[in-house]
């Protein structure tokens, strides 16, 4: 008997799950749902526009979507157009791969001021995500504060300081490129509440900020410890040693006269966002790292800035009908309840690179296979046929695989100035191409 599966979310973890299902159930039928018309989630809307090699993973995912056993249903939101129970009742198993699309909050005074943006929103804005098209970030001053010292913070800083020429072969949204180019930017401050050893960024990504066209990188050598101390071993320790070596190199680099400076500021924890009516600055408290934890020293300092961008992690949206535990969908190794499973960031939190999702999704498919073998999951549900009837009775304009190709062709045709394509930023414009 052939099995039927629904995958909710077409980002990396969902597409790796599709590959794993196909490997184990070559005759299965998989319906991949996405609330947005265009597929691949984080690849299209999260990966930095200048990380083109990473974005190329989409080619592999495209090949999966092209298979006869796989159907793409874009522009269908579970919880709005279909319920989780409708999926559960019609497919043998449902795999949630919805990622994390809410920004964690700092929880400090002033966080609600206009001019404070979470990375989800800011990264979505420069990556042409329809939900963030109109955030129109306040980039009207000389200074921006970026909170966090992970790879997302580094992405945000790099995109802010690169020139139009440096972004030419990327797929940054035209509205963002124009706004960043117009910004009278002088300083981007990247604040870490802990030190360089504890930073989440990785050596390759640090290496990308050498020799920027208009930006000098400032690292205070006094903040770089001589060696990696703490509870780190093996590969993790090696990464940290490389980070320190790269930071030392950056600190020692000649600082030619450049109009923009990217300042690495460690041991600085935000305590208040300042301003009346909008962001005017940020107050930080000096910290010391003791036993790996940031400990406040009571000494504060203020930095003026026109906007604050937080890159401090995410949490999963509350999916209709499924419980959250902390930042993720409540699960045990990927099992949620009944025939529902979860993979990717929504399962384990916002950690790891795109390929990390391969083994993660495969491990959940293995559990599913165990559950089928143990008789906990019975095959034989109707699959997509009943779902088609529900969707057409609700007048949902489902975006198919062929439609995706049509929209992409229009995006390629709209490209200018060496960019590979110009992504549509509004769902109506995507659907208009199809009509
Ligand atoms: P991350 O590496 O966990 O960084 C989050 C940062 O936010 C940390 O520096 C953390 O500091 C800080 N933070 C959290 N709460 C804070 C608070 N209240 N006040 C001040 N700082 C706070 O995560 P990420 O940058 O969001 O990236 C998510 C995952 O995607 C990571 O695995 C990352 O490597 C990956 N990613 C990879 C790439 C790439 O490969 N090129 C690009 C982007 C993202 P503490 O450590 O002190 O908590």
Structure explained in plain terms:
Helices cover 33% and strands 21% of the residues. The chain has helices spanning 12-24, 41-45, 52-55, 57-65, 84-90, 119-126, 151-161, 174-182, 203-207, 234-252, 345-348, 357-373, 384-393, 401-413, 427-434; strands at 4-8, 29-34, 70-74, 93-96, 102-103, 116-118, 143-147, 187-191, 215-219, 260-265, 268-274, 281-290, 293-304, 307-310, 314-315, 324-325, 328-329, 335-337, 340-342. Strands 3-2-1-4-19-18 form a six-stranded mixed sheet, sandwiched between helices. A six-stranded parallel sheet has the order 6-14-7-8-10-9. β11 and β12 form a beta hairpin. The protein is globular, with a radius of gyration of 23 Å. It binds NADP nicotinamide-adenine-dinucleotide phosphate (NAP). NADP nicotinamide-adenine-dinucleotide phosphate binds at residues 51, 106, 147-153, 155, 192-194, 198, 200, 205, 269-270, 294, 311-313, 350-353.
Throw out a few tags for this protein.
alpha/beta, 435 residues, binds NADP nicotinamide-adenine-dinucleotide phosphate, six-stranded parallel beta sheet, 15 helices, six-stranded mixed beta sheet
Are there runs of 5+ residues with pLDDT below 50, and where? none
- Residues in helix, %: 25-40%
Please tally the β strands and state the result.
Answer: 19
User: What shape does the CA trace take?
Assistant: globular
Strand order of the largest sheet: 3-2-1-4-19-18
SS class:
alpha/beta
Mean pLDDT: 96
Q: Give the distance, in angstroms, between the N- and C-terminal Cα atoms.
A: 38 Å
Give every kind of bound small molecule, once each: NADP nicotinamide-adenine-dinucleotide phosphate
Number of helical stretches of at least 4 residues = 15
> What is the radius of gyration?
23 Å
Biggest sheet, in brief?
A: 6 strands, mixed
Measured by DSSP, the beta-strand proportion falls in 15-25%
């Amino acid at each position: 008997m052939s099995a039927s599966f629904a995958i909710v979310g077409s980002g990396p973890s969902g597409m790796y799950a599709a590959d794993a299902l196909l490997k184990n159930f070559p005759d299965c039928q998989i319906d991949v749902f996405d609330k947005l018309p265009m597929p691949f989630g984080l690849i299209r809307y999260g990966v930095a526009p200048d990380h083109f090699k990473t974005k190329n993973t989409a080619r592999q995912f495209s090949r999966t979507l092209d298979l006869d056993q796989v159907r793409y249903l874009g522009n269908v939101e579970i919880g709005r157009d279909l319920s989780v129970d409708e999926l559960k009742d019609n497919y043998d198993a449902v795999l949630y791969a919805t990622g994390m699309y809410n920004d964690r909050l700092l929880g400090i005074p002033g966080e609600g001021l206009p001019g404070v943006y979470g990375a989800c929103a800011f990264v979505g804005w420069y990556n042409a995500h329809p939900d963030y098209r109109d955030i129109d970030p306040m980039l009207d001053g000389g200074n921006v504060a970026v909170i966090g010292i992970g790879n997302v913070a580094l992405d945000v800083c790099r995109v802010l300081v690169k020139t139009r020429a440096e972004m030419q072969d990327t797929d940054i949204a035209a509205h963002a490129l124009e706004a960043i180019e117009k910004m009278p930017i002088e300083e981007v401050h990247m604040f870490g509440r802990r030190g360089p050893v504890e930073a989440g960024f990785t050596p390759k990504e640090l290496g990308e900020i050498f020799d920027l066209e208009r930006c000098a990188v400032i690292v205070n050598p006094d903040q770089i410890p001589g060696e990696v101390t703490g509870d780190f071993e093996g590969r993790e320790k090696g990464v940290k040693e490389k980070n320190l070596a790269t930071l030392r190199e950056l600190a020692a680099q000649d600082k030619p006269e450049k109009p923009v400076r990217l300042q690495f500021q460690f041991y600085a924890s935000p305590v208040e966002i300042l301003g009346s009516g909008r962001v005017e600055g940020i107050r930080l408290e000096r910290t010391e790292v003791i036993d790996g934890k940031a400990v406040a020293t009571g000494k504060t300092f203020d930095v003026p800035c026109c906007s604050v961008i937080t890159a401090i992690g995410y949490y999963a949206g509350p999916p209709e009908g499924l419980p959250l535990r902390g930042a993720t969908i409540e699960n045990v190794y990927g099992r949620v309840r009944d025939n529902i499973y979860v993979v990717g960031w929504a399962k384990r939190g916002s950690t790891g690179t795109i390929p990390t999702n391969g083994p993660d999704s495969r491990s959940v498919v293995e559990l599913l296979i165990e559950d089928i073998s143990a008789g906990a999951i019975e095959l034989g549900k109707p699959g997509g046929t009943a779902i088609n009837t529900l969707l057409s009775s609700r007048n949902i304009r489902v975006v198919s695989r062929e439609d995706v190709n049509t929209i992409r062709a229009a995006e390629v045709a709209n490209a200018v100035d060496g960019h590979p394509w110009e992504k549509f930023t509004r769902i109506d414009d995507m659907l208009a191409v199809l009509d």
